[in-house]
Amino acid sequence: MALQITDENFAEYANSGKPMVLDFWAEWCGPCRMIAPIIEELSKEYEGRVVVGKMDVDNNNDVVSEFGIRNIPTILFFKDGKLMDKQVGAAPKQTFVNKVEALL
Q: What is the set of active-site residues?
């Protein structure tokens, strides 16, 4: 299951030594609900190798502001705590898989 990432625990997960996929979403966002099953699949398929998390944009202003998130869903891909790639909007699972594999 994807982790619930917050302003308080973001740095801990981002600097865990593992790549991180972070889905910025909101309960009211239709496209966010469309990709939610893909994010869950990634969390299972890459368990132990990649941190896969979700951040509710309505409750975590600090990280949302830090990365200038204006549209959701936005998925950020980190390696060694550095932003490496991003996907704005819904996309097929293979798009996400390709971006995760590039981090490994």
A: 29, 32
